[in-house]
Amino acid sequence: MAKRTEKIASSPIMANVTYNERSIYIEHVDEQNGTASIHSLDEPNKKQSVSVTSLKEQ
The pTM is what? Predict the structure, then answer.
């Protein structure tokens, strides 16, 4: 899952990914720790680090 999340994050095309049923933007992926730095699309200043396994690609 970390590799797919990294692909999504580095793609110029915005993918539809959710966290807790909210659309998010992936800023950075830490493959070693299996985490991603994200923010919701409606709250870009509220960044958080979450497990990549908690992200869902639509």
Answer: 0.87
Split into its structural domains, the chain has a count of 1
Rounded to the nearest angstrom, the gap between the alpha carbon of residue 34 and the centroid of all alpha carbons in its chain is 11
Domain that holds residue 17: 2-57
What is the rounded radius of gyration, in angstroms, for the C-alpha atoms of the chain?
10
Residue 24's CB is within 10 A of a number of other CB atoms, namely: 21
Burial class (CB in 10 A: 0-12, 13-18, 19+), 11: exposed
Tell me the CA end-to-end span of the chain in Å, nearest whole number: 14
What does the pLDDT look like over 2-47, one tens digit per residue? 889 999 999 988 899 999 999 999 999 999 999 999 999 999 999 9
